[in-house]
Amino acid sequence: MDLTLFVQLLISGLLLGGVYALSSIGLTLIFGVMKIVNFAHGEFLMIAMYLSFWLHHLLQVDPYLSIVVVAIALFGLGLFTFRIAVRPTLGAPHLNQIFVMVGLSIVIENAALLWWSADFRTVSLDYLRAQIVLGPWPGLGLEEIIVNPGRLIAFLVGLSISVAFYFFLKLSYSGKVIRATSQDRSAALLMGIDIDKVYKLTFAGGLMLVGVAGALMIPMFTVHPFVGFEFVLVMFVVVVFGGMGSVVGAVMAGLFIGVIEVFSDFLIGPDSKQAVYFLLFIAVLVLKPSGLFGIKGEEEVERIEAIE
Amino acid sequence: MKATGAVLTVLMVVGIALGQIAAADEAWRIGTILPLTGPQAKNGTKNFDGIKIATDMINEAGGVLGKKVVLISADASEPQAAASEANRLITNEKITAIIGTQSSSLSMAATVVAEQNKVFYIENEGVSGQITGRGFKYTFRTTFSGDMMAAQMVDYAAQVLAPKFKKTAKELKLAIIHEDGGFGTSTGTALQKHAKTLEMNVVAVETYSAKTADLSGLVLKLKQAKPDVLLAAQYINDAILFHRQAAELRFIVPVIGTTAGQGNPDFYNALTKDAEGILAGGIPAEISIERLGAEQKADAGDFVKRYQASHNGEYPNPTSFVGFAGAWILYKYIMPKAGGLDPEKLREAALSLNIPPGKGVLNWGIKFSPPGAPDAGQNVTASAGISQWQSGKLKLVFPKEIATAEAK
């Protein structure tokens, strides 16, 4: 493989990984704080993509401008979902929570099918047609490298959100409250933290992040009622890989999976790329169950519950 | 009150039962199995529109052998549902002839039930080779098979594209990509088989999952293989992704896809001017009415007119063409010859037909492969076509005999 091809594959992989990371941050946040596996996360991504699509289609709002609207709408949807579906199951066994979230995903998927039909819808932005071309740099032995601007924007936004989020969790009072709740629910309660409020804002915040992801993804991907399912599998791999609950881990894992996917696509064959990252996924589960950046014990939900 | 209610219910049930018996005496009852809900609902409904128009047309012309045709419609969005609906139509509704099923996986399930019960089955759209490859006696496919479609895609590359590159067919470098589901795999295999028959130079064959979020690795791999022409068996979602990433990474070659992907209107909506010139094999995009015989011309014209009247003037969807064709072949050619709906007689009637292309329905003839043939029950005169996006419209450009526009 020549150098140009290697760099091109690396860049394509990192940009794809940026999309994975961006869409997984909300999922890992909800899991880390609430210990709830949001199986409907892919469907919320689908809703966000549809919202952005309709804003563009009906009102000609640029998807990059609609980020704010979609994020706020998804935040509201998060509050609503928390109230009707998540909060009643918080004290219930995990199996009940899983059923509720899976049920919710099926309801959303079919509602989308009913309202918006099975058509494949896309947003085409003329200004994204122009590719960013780097090089050539004959000195380095590099020919032209092509960068897709849509993916680059998603990558940069994903990266900055995770950095901002990292500092929000580390430095702000609310961040400390969220971290305290995630580390020990009971102790946080004893310290006078309003856990219900923390959960509510975390869930809505997680959905807000997926709202941003949806708006950033619509210029590149087709939206249809089953699009959530296509992304949710890789999102779970990213979250477990990076360590459940770790935002930085999700970003790193997202980038890693993206690069692995593109390289195995090229070197082994596109039909086996999923097999490659799922094998890695199993290896991580066996060797380091807490993930690459997770806190040890974070994944052991059942046992903590049992001790309580 | 309760007693009155019960009496009324009994009367109603008796009334409905009597009504059905009366209807059964007066009309031919034919079952349809199509996905009218679920992800394939769009095509299933369009296919049913075609069957419905054929039924209206035959009934307004006096029906078949003096009796009207009534459709008993069943909805199946998944293979299990297709099998159970076929069972229901056969055992509860006493149906002896069924038209369906739009997709190959639904067809595979429904035709098994029909075969076990010795019920006549018209497959009007599913293209998988397996449907007619199982030696079934009661399954007849009125439309072309995936194999016939793949042959035309390869022929187009050899006959039309090779001269443009100033190469012979054997010198032309082909690449084949296909998604790894049933549709992609069977079409991909057929493409390779026909390329081999013509001794063409296949420089790459790649398989991928249609549910992928990225195809840049595939695009770069193809770019290295440097094919002249790309043959692709893709669905719509992955076709859009592939063409977008191919344009980004500057891999631009003539692409012959299929109506499942490149020929879908959503494909054009997503790629707009980048879709111009892209080709799609499959159901011919237009009926070349001028080339038909007088009777076929009148029938096809009537069909188009009726479709437009009920669809805001839209030109018929290709799926509606094949839906219409299947029903029309049954009503106009098979049933009169069989003298009714007895499955054995329908079979014999179907096998005895020998109508040359252009004299049957649409641009097709009617001649089914006999039992024992590797494609038993296949209408060998049905043909696919190659269509091309030209100024936002899908135009039929190949084969020459039925083309409505020049290839660009």
Strand and helix order of chain B: HEHEHEHEEHEHEHEHEHEHHHEE
What's the structural domain tally of chain A?
1
* Main beta sheet strand tally, sense and closure of chain A: 2 strands, antiparallel
Shape summary of chain A: globular
Radius of gyration of chain B: 23 Å
CATH class of the largest domain in chain B: Alpha Beta
Helix content of chain A: over 70%
Compute the number of structural domains of chain B. 2
Strand order within the widest sheet of chain A? Answer: 1-2
Q: What is the structural class of chain B?
A: alpha/beta
Mean pLDDT of chain A: 86
Structural class of chain A: mainly alpha
Name of the CATH architecture of the largest domain in chain B: 3-Layer(aba) Sandwich
Order of helices and strands of chain A: HHHHEEHHHHHHHH
List segments of chain B where confidence is low: pLDDT < 50 over at least 5 consecutive residues: 18-23
Walk me through what this model shows.
- The complex is a heterodimer of chains A (308) and B (408).
- A two-stranded antiparallel ribbon of chain A has the order 1-2.
- Chain A contains 12 helices and 2 strands, in the order ααααββαααααααα.
- In chain A, 71% of the residues lie in helices and 2% in strands.
- Chain A has helices spanning 3-34, 41-59, 63-86, 94-116, 149-171, 173-183, 185-190, 195-217, 227-242, 247-267, 273-287, 301-307, and strands at 132-134, 145-147.
- Residues 301-308 of chain A have low confidence and may be disordered.
- Chain A is an all-alpha fold and 308 residues long.
- By secondary structure, chain B is α/β, with parallel strands linked by helices.
- Chain B has 2 domains: 2-143 and 292-377, 3-Layer(aba) Sandwich (Rossmann fold), CATH 3.40.50.2300; 147-282 and 386-398, Rossmann fold.
- Chain B is 45% helix and 16% strand.
- Chain B contains 12 helices and 12 strands.
- Chain B has helices at 2-26, 41-60, 79-91, 104-116, 146-164, 182-197, 216-225, 236-248, 265-271, 294-310, 318-338, 343-352, and strands at residues 27-34, 68-75, 97-100, 120-123, 139-141, 173-179, 201-208, 229-233, 255-258, 279-282, 385-390, 393-398.
- Chain B has a 7-stranded mixed β-sheet with strand order 7-6-8-9-10-11-12, sandwiched between helices.
- The radius of gyration of chain B is 23 Å and the shape is globular.
- The N and C termini of chain B lie far apart (75 Å).
- Residues 18-23 of chain B have low confidence and may be disordered.
- The interface between A and B is large, with 41 and 37 residues.
